[in-house]
Amino acid sequence: MSVTETGPVTATRGERGERIHHRRDRAGVWFSLLAWVVGILFVLPVLWMVLTSLHSEADAATNPPSVFAPVTLEGYREFFTAGASPWPPLLNSLTASIVSTALVLLLSIPAAYALSIRAVKRWTDVLFFFLSTKMLPVVAGLLPIYLFAQNTGLLDNIWLLILFYTSMNLPIAVWMMRSFLSEVPVEMLEAAAVDGAGLGRIMRAVIAPVVMPGIAATALICFIFSWNELLFARVLTATVAETAPVFLTSFVTSQGLFLAQLCAAAFVVSLPVLVAGFAAQDKLVQGLSLGSVK
Amino acid sequence: MTSVAEQTSRGRTDAASRAGGAPRRAAGWARRAPLLPALIFMIVVTQLPFVATLVISFMDWNAYYPDERGFAGVDNFRRVFTDINMREAVWTTILLTAGVVLISLLLGLGIALLLDRKFRGRGAVRTMMIAPFLVVPVAAALLWKHALYNPEYGLFNGALTGVWNLFGADRPPQPDWISTMPLWAVIFALVWQWTPFMMLILLAGLQGRPLDVVEAARIDGANTWQIFRTMTLPHLRQYLELGALLGSIYIVQNFDAVFTITSGGLGTANLPYTIYTIFYNAHDYGRASAAAVVVVIGTIIIATFALRTVSSLFKQEPGR
């Protein structure tokens, strides 16, 4: 009895389910197509930058655009050889980004430890103090730092910039490292302590494996933000300690055809960030959300 | 903020701190020691300059007239509040920040939903989407200004010409994008850079969604819109808030795009750019400092609300 009753019912359910599936598949194709179109639209300016950088100045500035013009490295050659050399600014940027990132890690990891694993009292207040410094407009501190640099002869000195970049990224790093350190299992820490493992051993065996990916994410974000910074670099540096973004702004002269060279310059300056960011896409998300998205 | 701190830090105090006396104090300092370098560094580098700004804001100090340096009282503040440029800068900053955050949040949500499905080339599309965020901001601003917006040979007008030629029409429209819609020109360039950021955060949020519940709802006959409105959106709420908050922190401070694309002209000068010009071009240190102080006070008021949002985000996180 029950068999004859349930039989047809399951059949119609199956049919309906399939029909829904078909409709969803067809909609799915359109959604996939849309995703591709949107993705291409967003990447198009970047591709256009690369393509233009590979064209001659005459082909770069045509209307309508000459997409299939012959490819040349003229723009890159011009960028590296004509006019001021871009190497000192690029090296300055590299120094500032790497040294400040190292300093940030050196300061933020112990701080994060004192805010998570062995937390001080009122640790949330401390955490929010760090975040609140990120909300203060940087221009508010610009003038006194400039005057200080002027009076101490630190103007146009890469170390002042390194110091400032460290303070710029430290709050982000503290937040990120804290969020990663709070993932360290307390039971394992206690078990290791009971077994008589010293602090160094606990660090290496228990904390490091959990935290290494977090350190990588933090370093990536700090590197990118230091590399990108323009306002302070522009005010605090001149010819000696000039960074790549500052060089880029001073490089633009609106005389004559320069588009291919400009695109080559923009691409060269962006290359370290593009490489680092693509290589560590998942780290990028963790870092940008201050470690709250894992 | 304090109430949150008290709630969460309760129960975290160690046995050592309850012991009392000298060992307790020593244990407290042992705990604090790793924190101190970072904390002191931050106070010295970010708070001391602000104290100096506060002092200078009450001074008559223009580098062009070094002899006239002295106490000015509230003169600088009076000039800041009566300065039409400052008032316009406040308005521009609000429009710019709200515009970029809202548009990139909405676009990011749409794209995150598109990417939250399995399809051929999903990884490739995700990678393409991230690219704009990885272009150095100054480079991106230069790219938009010269290679895309330029009325003579920019890609936008080039594409218009191409399309018009394709259909055999002559005289295609060739708008001068930056001078006809300067603020939007800046907003679009920034939206292009920040949509990937929002998309990444929201996509991570979507992928942390409990799928079995969604599947159960679908079997119970809920349609896609119902599922989105009653399940996906509430789940995404904290990620939307996080994206909006972090996006605002960065875009409020934007200098690169305004400086590069319009040089602050045509009504696009936001607060950072305006203060930069008072300081860097006019060398009026007193007035620049007063403006900075006003902006900081305004920021503190807004940030108090924003911080409440963040603390609610982290409230669910179990303390230990």
Instruction: Could you tell me the CATH topology label of the largest domain in chain B.
Output: MetI-like fold
Instruction: Tell me the CATH superfamily of the largest domain in chain B.
Output: MetI-like
Query: Can you tell me the CATH class of the largest domain in chain B?
Result: Mainly Alpha
Number of strands of chain B: 2
Total individual domains of chain A? 2
Number of helices of chain A: 13
Could you describe the largest sheet of chain B, including whether it forms a barrel? 2 strands, antiparallel
Give the total of domains of chain B: 2
Largest interface: A-B, 100 and 114 residues
DSSP, total strands of chain A: 0
CATH class of the largest domain in chain A: Mainly Alpha
Q: Distance between termini of chain A?
A: 54 Å
Give the strand line-up of the largest sheet of chain B: 1-2
Report on this model:
The complex is a heterodimer of chains A (294) and B (320). Chain A is mainly alpha-helical. Chain A has 2 domains: 2-45; 86-288, Orthogonal Bundle (MetI-like fold). Chain A is 76% helix and 0% strand. Chain A has helices at residues 2-53, 57-60, 74-81, 87-113, 123-135, 139-152, 158-181, 186-194, 199-228, 231-236, 244-251, 259-279, 281-288. In chain A, 47% of the residues are buried. By secondary structure, chain B is mainly alpha-helical. Chain B has 2 domains: 16-54, no CATH class; 85-313, MetI-like fold (Orthogonal Bundle), CATH 1.10.3720. Chain B is 73% helix and 1% strand. Chain B is built from 16 helices and 2 strands. Chain B has helices at 2-9, 15-19, 21-32, 36-57, 75-82, 84-115, 122-130, 137-148, 155-166, 177-180, 182-207, 211-219, 224-252, 256-262, 271-280, 285-313; strands at residues 59-60, 70-71. A two-stranded antiparallel sheet of chain B has the order 1-2. The longest helix of chain B is centred in the N-terminal third of the chain and has 32 residues, at 84-115. Mean pLDDT of chain B is 81; it is low at 1-19. At the A-B interface, α1, α4, α5, α6 and α7 of A face α1, α3, α4, α6 and α7 of B.
